[in-house]
Amino acid sequence: MIEIGKALVSFDVLDQQFLCDLSKCKGACCVEGDSGAPLTEEEAKIIEEVYPEVEPYLSERNRAEVKRQGFSMIDSDGDLVTPIIGNKECVYTYWDEDGTVKCGIERAYLDGKIDFRKPVSCHLFPIRITEYKRFDAVNYQELDICKPGKACGKREQLPLWKFLKEPLIRKYGKEWYEELQYAAENIPRD
Questions:
Q1: Rounded to an integer, what distance in angstroms lies between the CA atom of residue 181 and that of residue 134?
Q2: Same domain, 137 and 64
Q3: pLDDT tens digit sequence for 59-106
Q4: In this structure, what DSSP letter does residue 38 have?
Q5: In terms of residue numbers, what domain contains 12?
């Protein structure tokens, strides 16, 4: 691991190659898992505020679940997360015509309806950040559902840290990212 600012970054973040391949995984990260996407309190408030612009992108079933469960919830681990349907699918998802699961929040953002792209935990995936009192642990979460992304990244020779440049800057800032880039390109590793 290396320390950059208040973050301890796993060498996997620097060394793994990755590029999402939605044509193969079909957005499984929005459906698989035992809990919703981790949220900050600020993100939960933003989602509630922008929901009227997101709602038209969601199915009737998903809208009903948001109405029933709320805009965010506390999961069994005590974490603030997006609600999910049937212990799987995030309530903010929709299914594209080709069967790919996509984010209704991000769709509203891309369509210029809102200024909030999506929760940073989603934007950073498959990087997962665990926040502790004195530092953040920044780790690559290797999952079977992301094997196509790993294969695609290897084909394109795209390091994970480069693939996730935008969300890493969103989370930690441009200077922090430049330090990460320097470390990735200059620190010798076995």
A1: 23
A2: no
A3: 999 999 999 999 999 998 899 999 999 878 999 999 999 999 999 999
A4: B
A5: 1-18+126-190
Among 89, 108, 125, identify where a domain stops. 125
Dump pLDDT digits (tens) for 145-175: 889 999 999 999 999 999 999 999 999 999 9
Distances (CA, A) of 97 to 24, 110, 123, 136: 15, 17, 22, 38
Q: Which two tokens stand for residue 151?
A: 């294969």
Dihedral sign for Cα 97, 163, 129, 146, please: positive
18: left (phi over 0), alpha (psi -120 to 50) or beta: beta
pLDDT at 18 over 90: yes
Given a contact cutoff of 8 angstroms between Cβ atoms, the answer to whether 61 and 53 are in contact is no
Residue that finishes a domain, picked among 79, 96, 125? 125
**Parallel/antiparallel/unpaired status of strands 136-140 and 7-9:** parallel
Per the DSSP assignment, residues forming a β-bridge with 140 are: 127
